[in-house]
């Protein structure tokens, strides 16, 4: 019998948790959907407090222990969530017999791959252990951004021009497997997200603004897009209340994310914060936007 | 009669100086070429000490005063050098009668243009005043980077892979008129230059490194390229001793710039610093590199 609203399943859900607040939000949301998630917190990465959840701490390259945990806990579905800032080095990889055959390609990927390549490799190794990798939004569909304005405010024509400039930059970045975010002010891209992440990029824009290098008379927008080639089972781009606070501190007019391909965390708090500070939050449809919507 | 090594000219050279050390280096180098440059230091931008040079301080949008200065000083050639961090607002523009006809397009550019568009506009306005805008390298050709290694060190195969990744990112950025610089480590782009400039980007990479988010086992490179559509009379990308210091602090293996389309400032000091810290400085030919050289 299928559990209410979920694909039929006999096993337990695991969340492999990296850094940041996202994995905890995903775990709580999964619980609200009737799941009892088991948390595999990655050592040196996961920083949430997992009190109240069944959890264990494992090294990211320790596929042998991860695979054992899948067996003892009866895991059949796995969500990967959170940032993995420290890429595993080859000497940290402990393969299982099942995954041993894949080691040459693992080494190659670790030596040269972008974020997406490393993620795809991790997914392959997990699925070789018998569990299925699914996206957080498959467990908790209401995390996905809807099209249109999310709160009380909407972009002006100037903001829409900034959104278009941000989309062009985020697309170019994403195609290079670099980042997902860009900030445009006055039709001009002023910051691009690399390994530092969205919060650090917004802090940089706030500094540029304080330094007079971005006009106080123009506001600007943050655009976050899914990379064109991104496997949607990896974390989709996400925004939360802290993103709104960072955008406000940077003097921006609002935030645009891709409808259906971005996660909105703590939606009620986020919308309240955006409404209070006058920021718009917009779910955009990339193709409709391109066509000049 | 043509002055030694210079195109025939009866007038004086002006340098319109923005922020940073570059304009002063250009002025000194011009003097070594037999020029007696007159400096127009942009208020709120120029930060060099111009003692020892004929100079005046003017607002960037004050084309009326700039045009008068051209007439009184007998300026016939103008070099634009240094960063203009604060874009002029429309209310700061003081056009001349000659430039008045161009004002509508000026306003449009200021409202929406990227750096290149604003620069082209400034050049058009200057040339409408009767002077010719030339590149710094036309006055001081030995500022240009040569192809090949500049100091004692050369890139390894790993470094060359990082250079290729950096070229791809810098090209994508440049086509969007965003920035000219990128840092790649382990084949992966970790930082992209926006309005913050190269030094701030290198400081960010040093922070990511200190934070363990870039492996200590991989070095990486800084790549700076001319934007594909860049007017070469605007400042070409430049490196100097401070770039070497920043790259060393970021743990990089070296710096690649485009031969013939990048300025190398204080070359003897730069080469000495790079040699001492073990960094390579490489002039690359974009097309040869693409072909797999």
Largest interface: A-B, 42 and 42 residues
Instruction: Determine the N-to-C terminus distance of chain A.
Output: 44 Å
What overall geometry of chain A do the principal axes of the alpha carbons give?
A: elongated
Assign a percent range to the helix content of chain A: 25-40%
Give the tags.
LpxI_N (chains A, B), 6-stranded mixed sheet, elongated, Cytidine Deaminase, domain 2, 293 residues, 11 helices, alpha/beta, 19% strand, 2 domains, homodimer
Task: Briefly say what this structure is.
Chains A, B: This is Phosphatidate cytidylyltransferase. Two copies of one chain form a homodimer. Chain A folds into two domains: 12-141, Rossmann fold; 144-290, Cytidine Deaminase, domain 2.
Task: Write up this protein.
The structure is a homodimer of 293-residue chains. With 293 residues, the first copy, chain A, is α/β, with parallel strands linked by helices. Chain A has two domains: 12-141, 3-Layer(aba) Sandwich (Rossmann fold), CATH 3.40.50; 144-290, 3-Layer(aba) Sandwich (Cytidine Deaminase, domain 2), CATH 3.40.140. Helices cover 38% and strands 19% of the residues of chain A. Chain A has eleven helices and 13 strands. The first copy, chain A, has helices spanning 22-32, 63-73, 97-100, 103-112, 115-128, 136-139, 157-175, 198-210, 241-249, 267-277, 286-290, and strands at residues 12-17, 38-42, 55-58, 75-81, 132-134, 148-149, 181-185, 188-192, 221-224, 238-239, 254-258, 263-264, 280-284. In chain A, the strands form three sheets. Chain A has a six-stranded mixed sheet with strand order 6-13-11-9-7-8. In chain A, strands 3-2-1-4-5 form a five-stranded parallel sheet. In chain A, strand 1 (12-17), helix 1 and strand 2 (38-42) form a beta-alpha-beta unit. In chain A, helix 8 runs parallel beside helix 9 (241-249) and helix 9 runs parallel beside helix 10. The longest helix of chain A has 19 residues, at 157-175. Chain A is elongated. The first copy, chain A, starts with 11 loop residues before the first strand and ends with a helix. The interface between A and B is large, with 42 and 42 residues.
């Amino acid at each position: 019998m299928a559990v209410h609203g979920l694909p039929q399943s006999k096993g337990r859900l695991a969340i492999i948790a990296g850094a940041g607040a996202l994995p905890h939000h995903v775990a709580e949301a999964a619980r609200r959907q009737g799941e009892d998630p088991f948390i595999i917190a990655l050592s040196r990465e996961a920083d949430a407090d997992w009190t109240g959840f069944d959890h264990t701490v494992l090294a990211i390259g320790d596929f042998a222990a991860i695979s054992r945990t899948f067996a003892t806990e009866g895991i059949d579905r796995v969500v990967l969530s959170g940032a993995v800032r420290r890429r595993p080095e080859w000497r940290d990889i402990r393969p299982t017999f099942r995954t041993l055959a894949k080691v040459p390609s693992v080494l190659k990927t670790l030596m040269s791959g972008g974020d997406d390549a490393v993620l795809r490799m991790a997914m392959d190794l997990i699925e070789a252990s018998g569990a299925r990798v699914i996206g957080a939004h498959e467990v908790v569909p209401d995390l996905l951004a809807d099209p249109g304005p999310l709160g009380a405010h909407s972009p002006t024509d100037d903001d829409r021009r900034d959104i278009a400039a941000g989309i062009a930059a985020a697309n170019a970045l994403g195609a290079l497997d670099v980042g997902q975010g860009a900030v445009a002010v006055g039709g001009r891209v002023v910051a691009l997200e690399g390994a530092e992440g969205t919060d650090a990029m917004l802090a940089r824009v706030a500094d540029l603004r304080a330094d007079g290098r971005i006009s106080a008379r123009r506001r600007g927008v943050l655009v976050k897009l899914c990379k064109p080639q991104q496997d949607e089972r990896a974390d989709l781009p996400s925004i939360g209340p802290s993103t709104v606070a960072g955008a406000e501190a940077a003097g921006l007019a609002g935030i645009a994310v891709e409808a259906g391909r971005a996660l909105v965390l703590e939606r009620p708090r986020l919308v309240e914060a955006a409404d209070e500070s006058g920021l718009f939050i917009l779910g955009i449809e990339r193709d409709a936007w391109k066509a000049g919507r």
